[in-house]
Write a structure and sequence with these properties.
heterodimer, A: alpha/beta, Rossmann fold, 17 helices, globular, B: mainly alpha, ABC transporter involved in vitamin B12 uptake, BtuC, 14 helices, about 5% strand, binds adenosine-5'-diphosphate, binds magnesium ion
């Protein structure tokens, strides 16, 4: 009875324009089990969920529920079949009341019985300890409360299958335990639960089985008890444990003066990393290591004030400064090359030249335009220095290859002569040759006295470039690794063991 | 990481209610101002009732528009549909081919036809509402001018009786200079307004459809994920709006007694303006249906004020336009203050309220 398969997905494929989100993925869920779906950000977990629940239509594959093939056209169909879902992006209506959000779309009755609905909602809220009133507008609740309300709704649905896509991302320890208690209760009642989280400890605490996805492909299905954490991590990242690449030696810089060029204490941002301390010396290259989604990008975004800074203090060369906006950071000599080149970095339609001089222009203010000749000179200089392959300076940047686009953004920052440059995934999606060029450039800049933070999801690359690695897990810094003979395995061990 | 314990446990009034209260206050201030400025006319109850008597059709059209706006859409065909209905009904009655009941059915039929068409194209084929209803507006206008170019007075006795029918309120009225008591008069159209206001208010508050309309207007993606049939909800909201425009057309004819190509002109603009003044958010999802009549009253009071002041009538349009700007800005200020989010309009520092939270959000400089 317990091993009865309630949901079976076979050969699921799904593509978005330009992205293959899922390719030939199988997944099975048994009655009364908690099945963790694991993978780095972008592995395709949420897409798989949205295919089960009828939000997206699959390109290929088959879904059967309790042995019957199903084809959901909308979340409504899935809901009617007894699938309760908490989506990753909280899918509630901010303008409705808390109670309405818990019950709307579920009742077949043509009339709303407010009293009855509010009473039922109040009962649910109380039993789950959610500090919200049923008649309150949802928009006035905090994100954590909204998340709990979404959970309450899904749980109340009396479903056969419960799907939780990163439900714990904004919950605290107490709330997580409440949720787990609830999940265990439902499990005992025979509900099959799909649980997605990027907190690895939570997976080991609650799940029975694990399915790992990577780059939209199925890596495997495992019994949780039989899969060591470190193996799970290596499966998620796609690095065999034994595959430790040869490492090039890299001289760590000598700390000439003990005052770090940049220092942050208890820094925190609205993007939700645990307050952290961080310092970097002149001429040092360090890096944030960790799984995708572990808070690497959020940390450096906090340094650059790219997300709203909510606390902590910052010193530059030992002097306290206020960095509230990216412009403040730029004026203090900090540069930031964002992870999302398309979203944050390049301006598609602008020419190579305009993209290069953008940051300098922003710093000077738009009322003091650079002369045409100056911009031409600057742009030309960097196109040569970085060997940017472009037909002309006036070519729109969108027609350049990924690697060359990346170099343009790099040039943009180098032009402002930063003393501290943050590179978030500067080598993602670019060819091997350019990758090596960029790595070399980083080392050269450091030699010239610039401090750099280098983030990459390829650990071997970080090991080649960085003399110090700050290891992150679950949005928290769990430790530091430095030394000449670091291996990928050291990093994975630290992530797996949580820094102990 | 945000803990539950840090939640602000204020059970605040909803945005809809707040905007409704503001709309109510603005109306009372406006009417109060009118009473003080022109006591001669505004002090009379009849002046107030006449706002309803002469503009019942606008009230009705505004109600339908209100539902579409709460759903996050727009229907700019309502004025033309309303005008088309007056002419079609006038022709039917005047030609002797139909009686008053058949004319009413024709009005409902025309409104329903437009509503069904718009609803289908917008909800199921997912075409922009503005474009679709613009096409509907041209179609209705074209049909209207094709039907009959000149004003067409309806002289059918049964209809004239209906048109002239008035209800007197024996205990309310004014005493004229000769000492004769003149009771207040109400036209039947006002009752149609009253019935529809109650019906639609109940629909929006207590029916599943009404709440789905709010959900769809609030966040269409979430509404879908919550298991709401978004397409059906949108479809029905346009059907109701079209139907209501049809009713509005019939009431218009009941008020003026003639079909005319100018009938219902600019009603779509006035209805949108009235709804904005009544606290219906242009973005959808927020607003109290009772705000529609309140907003209409505000709009009409402003127009009456301008007329009473004796200035050129095109000033009415100018002032209405300026006030509309003001109300839209006001709405977005109220909404952004409440959500604590960054204020969308860029105002000079001296215009920014001091209560605004630090507005340094995730910057996107690369
Ligand atoms: N609606 C969409 N349009 C285009 N691309 C999408 C869409 N949703 C997801 N993707 C892409 O599909 C891939 C998988 O995304 P997702 O399923 O959200 O990953 P996960 O939940 O595992 O982090 C990513 O590359 C993402 O960019
Ligand atoms: Mg996801």
């Amino acid at each position: 009875m317990l091993s009865e398969i309630i949901l079976k997905m076979e050969g699921i494929s799904k593509s978005f324009p330009g992205v293959r989100a899922l390719h030939n993925v199988d997944f099975t869920l048994r009655r009364g089990e908690i099945h963790a779906l694991m993978g780095e950000n972008g592995a395709g977990k949420s897409t798989l969920i949205k295919i089960i629940t009828g939000v997206y239509e699959k390109d290929a594959g088959q879904i059967t529920i309790e042995g019957r093939p199903v084809q959901f056209k909308s979340p409504q169909d899935a809901q009617n079949m007894g699938i309760g879902t908490v989506f990753q992006e909280i899918a509630l209506c901010p303008n409705l009341t808390v109670a309405e959000n818990m019950f709307i779309g579920r009742s077949r009755s043509n009339f709303v019985k407010w009293k009855q609905m509010n009473a039922k909602a109040a009962e649910m809220l109380k039993s789950l300890g959610i500090p919200a009133s049923p008649t309150q507008e949802l928009a006035s609740c905090s994100i954590a409360v909204q998340q709990m309300i979404a959970i309450a709704r899904a749980v109340d649905m009396d479903c056969k299958i419960l799907i939780l896509d990163e439900p714990t991302s904004s919950l605290d320890e107490d709330e997580v335990q409440k949720l787990f208690a609830l999940m265990r209760e439902l499990k005992a009642r025979g509900v099959g639960i799909i649980f997605i989280t990027h907190f690895i400890d939570q997976v080991y605490e609650i799940s029975d089985r694990i399915t790992v996805l990577r780059n939209g492909e199925l890596i495997g299905e495992y019994e949780t008890a039989a899969l060591p954490q470190i193996e799970l991590i290596s499966k998620m990242m796609g690095k065999a444990l034994s595959d430790v690449t040869a490492m090039k030696k890299h001289e760590p810089p000598k700390a000439e003066n003990s005052v770090p060029i940049f220092e942050a204490k208890e820094l925190s941002s609205a993007a939700g990393v645990k307050p952290f301390n961080f310092a970097i010396q002149k001429g040092e290259v360090n890096g944030f290591a960790g799984l995708l989604g572990s808070g690497r990008s959020e940390s450096v975004r906090a340094i650059f004030a790219a997300d709203k800074v909510t606390g902590g203090e910052v010193k530059i060369n030992g002097k306290r400064v206020k960095i509230k906006t990216p412009l403040d950071a730029m004026k203090q000599g900090i540069g930031y090359l964002p992870e999302d080149r398309k979203g944050d970095g390049i301006i598609d339609e602008l020419s190579v030249r305009d993209n290069i001089i953008l940051a300098l222009q922003v710093m000077k203010g738009f009322f003091k335009p650079l002369s045409w000749k100056q911009t031409e000179e600057f742009a030309h200089q960097f196109v040569e220095k970085l060997e940017i392959k472009t037909p002309s300076l006036n070519t729109p940047i969108k027609s350049l290859s990924g690697g060359n686009q990346q170099k343009v953004i790099l040039a943009r920052w180098l032009l402002t002569h930063p003393m501290y440059l943050i590179l978030d995934e500067p080598t993602r999606g670019i060819d091997v040759g350019t990758k090596v060029e960029i790595q070399k450039l980083v080392l050269k800049l450091a030699e010239e006295g610039m401090s750099l933070t280098f983030i990459s999801s390829e650990i071997d690359e970080m090991l080649r470039v960085c003399s110090r690695l700050i290891v992150m897990k679950d949005r928290e810094i769990i430790g530091e690794l430095s030394g000449m003979n670091l291996t990928e395995q050291d990093v994975m061990h630290m992530i797996a063991q949580g820094g102990k | 990481m945000e803990a539950l314990s840090t939640t602000k446990q204020r059970s605040r009034i909803s945005n809809s209610t707040l905007l409704f209260i503001i709309a109510g206050i603005i109306f009372f201030l406006m009417y109060g101002f009118a009473l003080i400025s022109f006591p001669g006319s505004f002090m009379q109850f009849q002046t107030f009732f006449d706002l309803f008597n002469f503009n019942a059709a606008l009230f009705i059209v505004t109600l339908g528009m209100c539902i579409v706006m709460i759903a996050g859409g727009i229907d700019i065909s309502v004025g033309a549909v309303c005008g088309l209905v007056t002419m079609a009904c006038a022709m039917l009655l005047q030609s002797g081919a139909g009686n008053v009941w058949e004319a009413l059915l024709l009005a409902l039929g025309i409104g329903l036809a437009f509503g069904l068409m718009h609803g289908y194209l917008i909800a199921y084929l997912e075409i922009q509402p503005f474009i679709i209803t613009l096409a509907g507006m041209f179609l209705a206008q074209g049909l209207l001018t094709t039907l009959h170019k000149d004003p067409l007075n309806v002289t059918k006795p049964a209809f004239v009786a209906l048109r002239n029918f008035t209800i007197e309120i024996p205990w309310l009225g004014t005493v004229n200079r000769l000492g004769v008591f003149i009771p207040c008069e109400i036209k039947p159209g006002v009752f149609v307004v009253l019935v529809l206001v109650i019906l639609y208010a109940v629909l929006m508050k207590w029916s599943r459809f009404g709440r789905n309309v709010y959900a769809v207007g609030g966040n269409i993606q979430s509404a879908r994920m919550l298991g709401i049939n978004v397409k059906k909800t949108l479809f029905l909201s346009y059907v109701i709006c079209g139907l209501t425009a049809g009713i509005g057309g019939f009431v218009f004819l009941m008020t003026t007694g003639a079909g005319n190509i100018g009938n219902g002109a600019l009603f779509e603009i006035k209805a949108i303006a009235a709804n904005v003044m009544g606290g219906i958010l242009l973005n959808g999802g927020v607003g109290n249906l009772l705000g529609a009549p309140i907003g209409t009253l505000t709009l009409l009071t402003i127009n009456e004020l301008i007329r009473a002041a004796g200035v050129q009538s095109n000033l009415q349009a100018i002032v209405s336009g300026l006030l509309l700007y003001l109300f839209i800005v006001l709405q977005s200020i109220v909404m952004s203050l409440r959500s604590g989010r960054k204020f969308r309009l860029t105002l000079p520092p001296w215009l920014k309220p001091h209560r605004l939270p630090e507005e340094k959000e995730a910057g996107n400089q690369g």
